[in-house]
Amino acid sequence: CAACGACVQACPARHSIQNGQHIYDRAGCNGCGTCAEACLFGALELAGYEMTIGEVMDTVRRDAPFYRGVGGLTITGGEPTLQADFATALAAAARAEGISVCVETCGYCPEHALLTLAAYTDLFLFDIKETDAARHKAYTGVDPALIIANLRALDAAGQATMLRCPIIPGFNDRLEHMEGIANIANTLSHARGIELMPYHPLGQGKAERFGLTPNKSLPEHAMPRKDVEALLTYLQTRTDVPVKVG
Q1: Looking at residue 61, what is its pLDDT?
Q2: Burial (Cβ within 10 Å: 0-12, 13-18, ≥19) of residue 81
Q3: Do 167 and 173 contact (CB within 8 A), yes or no?
Q4: What are 143-153's pLDDT values in tens digits?
Q5: Is 238 exposed, middle or buried (0-12, 13-18, 19+ CB in 10 A)?
Q6: Stretch 42-57: mean pLDDT
Q7: Most CB contacts within 10 A, which of 36, 91, 117, 222?
Q8: b/e string for 132-169 if b means 16 or more Cβ within 10 A?
Q9: pLDDT at residue 83, as a whole number
Q10: Which of 47-56, 96-105, 209-218 has the lowest mean pLDDT?
Q11: Distance between CA atoms of 90 and 57, rounded to whole angstroms?
């Protein structure tokens, strides 16, 4: 930012220059993008934009040569089920053209949203963040009962799932949690695997970009490989479902 004031002219309600510095009122922003278009130096960027099903499919088709029978469309987010109608229509459009569809979800949504989407989905990447109910509620703000119920509903419908498990030191890097993951996986008939996703600090930089205060309770460095391998080895002894590190 060069504090040139172009954004102030474009949107004086949300931008100002004070003591030679650019001030941005994020709370009142409606995401119109006018300021980003006016910015002469590329210091402002609109994160996200609206697209139609057709526009998304145009992008998907451009990558078709890279699929080679093993790739396809992954619908992720955010949380795709927050836009369940759009996600379902997009998945249906892709499947109609013979393109494989994968959906990544936290599982915290109405059951019917997942089951409707499942009709056009080949694989769900299903987050399991914490298997202890009290800890899950403390860390995420919600009880995990709905999440687990939705996972079981997908499995009962014959839907293939991959359990994706973020591992964050000091929060859920516990053997008891690994045991909980194994217990869940062992009750599923269509789980293709478990993927442990070790913590890395890249999200902290994203928080700063969006004007958020980085979480100081999170580690400053990526999770040590030896700690990841110890959890991996333990989990592999507790389940026959394939386990890997993502």
Answers
A1: 94
A2: buried
A3: yes
A4: 999 999 999 99
A5: middle
A6: 90
A7: 117
A8: eeebbeeeeeeebeebbebbebbbeeebbbbbbbbbbb
A9: 96
A10: 209-218
A11: 8
**Band of the pLDDT at 206, cuts 50, 70, 90?**
confident
> Are both 30 and 92 inside the same structural domain?
no
Residues in the chain: 246
Helix (H, G, I), strand (E, B) or coil at 102: strand
Domain around 4: 1-49
- Are residue 31 and residue 74 in the same domain, yes or no? no
Task: Look at the chain and report how many structural domains it folds into.
Answer: 2
- Quick one: 152 and 231 in the same domain? yes
Catalogue the long-range contacts made by 133-142 (C-beta closer than 8 Å, 24 or more residues apart).
135/171, 135/172, 139/171, 139/172, 142/108
Q: What is the CATH number of the domain that holds 233?
A: 3.20.20.70
Query: How do beta strands 191-198 and 100-105 pair?
Result: unpaired
Sequence-distant (6+) residues with CB within 8 A of 160 are 122, 123, 124, 190, 191, 192
The answer to whether residues 91 and 116 touch, using CB atoms and an 8 Å cutoff, is: no
Does the pLDDT of residue 70 top 90, yes or no?
no
Q: What is the CATH number of the domain that holds 17?
A: 3.30.70.20
Element (H, E) at 15: strand 15-18
Q: Are residues 107 and 20 in the same domain?
A: no
Per-residue model confidence (pLDDT) at position 46: 84
* Rounded Cα distance, 19 and 4, in Å: 12
Same structural domain, 117 and 82: yes
